[in-house]
Amino acid sequence: MKPVIVISAERLFMKSGALILVNDCLKFLSENLSQQFEIKALVFKKELYPDIKNVTFIEYPNARRHFLLRLYYEYFQFKKVSTKYHPYLWLSLQDSTPSVNAAIRAVYIHNPALMGKLKLKYLFRQPSYFAYHTLAKYIYPLFIRKNNHIIVQQAMLGNFLAKKYKVSHDKFIIAPPELSNTDYSPLVENKTSDTFLFLYPATAFVYKNHDTVIKAVRLLANKGINNIEILFTISGNENKYARSLRAKAEGLKITFINFVSKKEMYELYERSDCLLFPSLAESWGLPLREFQAFNKSILAADVLYANETIGDYNKVAYFPPSDYRKLATLMEDAIKKQLAYQKKSKTPATLMTTANGWDEVFRILLNSNK
């Protein structure tokens, strides 16, 4: 009988970077470790992972009904699962540490809410996110020290968690997301339109700070600058917050284009003239790294996650994340090709282990108790 690896991710059902992370993890396990281990994945619905083979999916279709039910799974139901399968490794990919028995326990923390401030205005603008933020900040970290390893995407987040929860640095693994070798269709014709295209790829969460972009675009419109288009990768119908954004953007050169695939995202990167990234908090901010391959301008919020992810890229300008006037000035400078770039690499010093890719992550995890 093969030893068992359990991956828990039943709370993740929205199309987002988190769901992509789970898919990439399961794909690696399927292709590289399914001969030596039995892989079991606890998921919302297996149809979210249509291309994954050699993995036994256990569905929790009621996981999105109520947060109390999700807590029941984490801290009561999963104990029974671990008793049944006796896993060698239990890896939670959704920030929380379930109450389970396993030879090796690990958690992947990629929720920026742990570091961000819980703002009362979130309750009114996006009640579901306020509830999630509360759980992420006060409930999910409860048993964090029971893990053999804690996986994060940045040194910044690892240092924060180590200090706040008094966890030894040697328990942490820094695993930056892998850049995709995406097979997309490059544009062959030269751009002929005079429209300057800004792209903001982000999901419909209030901390993504779309409002600052909308205010900046309105300011530009009032100055008569109309040769622009801004693309948001949300439909504007996802939730109360998204609908409020669509209403605020009425009459402005802002297009809501819905969630896009990785292939489509790279095509948008190539079409765009400049990347906008005003998000208040991220565990990484993958577009900030992916967009660098196209050697174009980035306008990013001047916060620690962005500084670390952008690194020493030389075509970036920063702005205070809520300063829409500064953002509007930078957007106008970008359009006029007068943008003054800044270099602000801030990679915190750390004693944590760094892993490049799932291969190195699982090599560390599976050898934890040897």
UniProtKB/TrEMBL annotation:
Pfam families associated with the record: Glycos_transf_1
Keyword Transferase: yes
Residue runs in coiled coils: none
GO MF annotation terms: glycosyltransferase activity
Entry-linked InterPro entries: Glyco_trans_1
Keyword terms, alphabetized: Glycosyltransferase, Transferase
E.C. no: 2.4.-.-
Ranges of residues in domain Glycosyl transferase family: 190-340
The protein, known as: Glycosyltransferase
